[in-house]
Amino acid sequence: MESANPPSPFGDTRQIAVERAIAEFRAARPVVVRSGSAAIVAFPVDGATEAALAFLQRGDGKPRVIVPGEKILSAGKWIRPVAALRLEPFTMEALDAYFGHDERVTAAANESFRAADRAEVAALALANLALLLPAVLVADVSANARDAFSLLAVDAEDIFGFRDREAKALKIVSRAFVPLEGAGSCEFVVFRGGDGFRDQIAILVGNPTPGKPVSVRIHSACLTGDLFGSLKCDCGEQLRGTVRAMAEQGGGAVLYLDQEGRGNGIANKIRAYRLQDQGFDTYDADELLGFGQDQRRFDFAADMLRLLGFTSVRLMTNNPLKIKALRDGGLDVLSTHRVLTRPTAHNVKYLAAKRDKAGHLLGDAGLDTFEGGEHPLSPARLP
Q: What is the radius of gyration, based on Cα positions, of the chain?
């Protein structure tokens, strides 16, 4: 049951409280998380300091570390119970050793494992909303009561409902025409809402007609690939190839969603890249950091299209989750079309992992027979 808050002239007070809590976590400051009569002080591991650890150890607050039990589904549900662990000693050195996968420290911490309670799970969810590492330090408020009164407090149920409420608050805030190389004049339409503090963008290529079928690509932002041409992924090539195809075939709509690193944020994406350099694939690297396979959500993409006047689409994607999201969102998906790119020595393992572990529709992309160099593949062409 969500908390009952008085109305505010400045918006939903539940959203306001969580937005402020996200900002506190992003600034590496603690917040109080309440669930029923229980309350804890929570601090993100991402940004932890000696002062933070000392604060949590005042009195007998039983300081502990909260980490994912395993993975989080894209819908935000926990597959296994979140874990609450005790570290002895509760020091920065012990934290660094635990998250550095020191076997002795990890084994000792795992002996203290218990399933996290509601407030502790909410604190971990807050770290995810703040795009921080999925790990928090907590202590009972009773031991820090005098200091905790000055901290921002947020209700656990408000944290759990934040993304759903944000998805429903989607609205258009600005739009203008921008000429693009190879595509001519395109209209950029900016939406506020959908997912957290981030803005989403629809790029209308050519002149698609509202009320008629439209070619669509849902594209998650990729700073390294889209902007800098990273060879580790196929994102930039997919984006530019799709826009060219739409321009050649009468237009379409690209939904550019601010969900970097499969929803983990740019800092965690680069952390995962470092692990990939050590031999882990893209999904194993995320799991080692504590993330699930995909934290993104695509349900609000259907609302973006509806606000633009489109209800029937020809979807350009390799990702079955995007197909399902538009259909579940009530849109008529008339057809789907692969967006194939060029396997290279840098990205062939990444593409194979997407196919084999996430079910991306890349079976005919030449990955199994790739032997080096480049294997040119054309971006999908609509009939």
A: 23
Q: How far, in Å, CA of 95 to CA of 189, rounded?
A: 44
3-state SS of the chain is CCCCCCCCCCCCHHHHHHHHHHHHHHCCCCEEEEECCEEEEEEECCCCCHHHHHHHCCCCCCCEEEECCCCECCCCCECCCCEEECCCCCCHHHHHHHHCCCHHHHHHHHCCCEECCHHHHHHHHHHHHCCCCCCEEEEEHHHHHHHHCCCCEEEHHHHHCHHHHHHHCCEEEEEEEEEECCCEEEEEEEEEEEECCEEEEEEEEECCCCCCCEEEEEEECCHHHHHCCCCCCCHHHHHHHHHHHHHHCCEEEEEEECCCCCCCCHHHHHHHHHHHCCCCCHHHHHHHHCCCCCCCCCHHHHHHHHHCCCCEEEEECCCHHHHHHHHHCCCEEEEEECCCCCCCCCCHHHHHHHHHHHCCCCCCCCCCCCCCCCCCCCCCCCC
- pLDDT of res. 147: 62
Active site residues: 294, 296
Cis peptide before 44 (omega within 30 of 0): no
* Half-sphere CA count of 231, side-chain side, radius 13 A: 7
Contacts for 103 with CB less than 8 Å, ≥ 6 apart: none
> Which pLDDT tens digit goes with each residue over 107-131?
676 667 778 899 999 999 999 999 9
Whether 349 shows a pLDDT value over 50: the answer reads yes
Give me the phi and psi of 67, to 5 degrees please.
-135, 160
Give yes or no for a contact between 191 and 295, defined as CB atoms under 8 angstroms apart.
no
Q: Mind listing the pLDDT tens digit for each residue in 219-229? A: 999 999 999 99
Question: Residue 55, CB half-sphere, CA atoms under 13 Å: how many?
Answer: 20
Q: How far apart are CA 336 and CA 356, in angstroms?
A: 20
